[in-house]
Amino acid sequence: MTLEKLLQSTGWTLIEPCDANPDVSGVFIGDLLSYVMGKGQPGQVWITMQSHPNVIAVAALKEFAAVILIDDILLDPQAAEHAQANGIPVIRSPLDAYASAKVLANLGL
Predict the structure, then answer these.
(1) pLDDT (tens digit, 9 = 90+) per residue, 40-69?
(2) Which of 6, 42, 43, 49 is a Cys-bridge partner for 25, taking CB atoms 3.0 to 4.6 Å apart?
(3) Which residues of 14-43 are buried (b: 16+ CB within 10 A; e: fewer)?
(4) Model confidence, pTM
(5) In CATH, what is the architecture of 3-106?
(6) Cβ(66)–Cβ(49) below 8 Å
């Protein structure tokens, strides 16, 4: 599934766009950055409540397709700059982590 298809299917808000339309291969959920760095896989979307610049650094390092912020959390302004500079799309979900993951699971991710 492409990121564009994910956005169309969920209705969630793309708050930091990028030029690419990456393929999404799966979902990773976690807030402990060292755990995410050790276990995340390229092409996954990352569901998190963290919105600071280090999240973008980890997303770029792991080559995630996008970061999904839960509960309508806003992205830190400095993190937004990092997302733009690194081409990391950031999506805002109005749902909590569990409900967001259920939506993505129902899409086959």
Answers:
(1) 999 999 999 999 999 999 999 999 999 999
(2) 43
(3) ebbebeeebebeebbbbeebeebeeebeee
(4) 0.96
(5) 3-Layer(aba) Sandwich (3.40)
(6) no
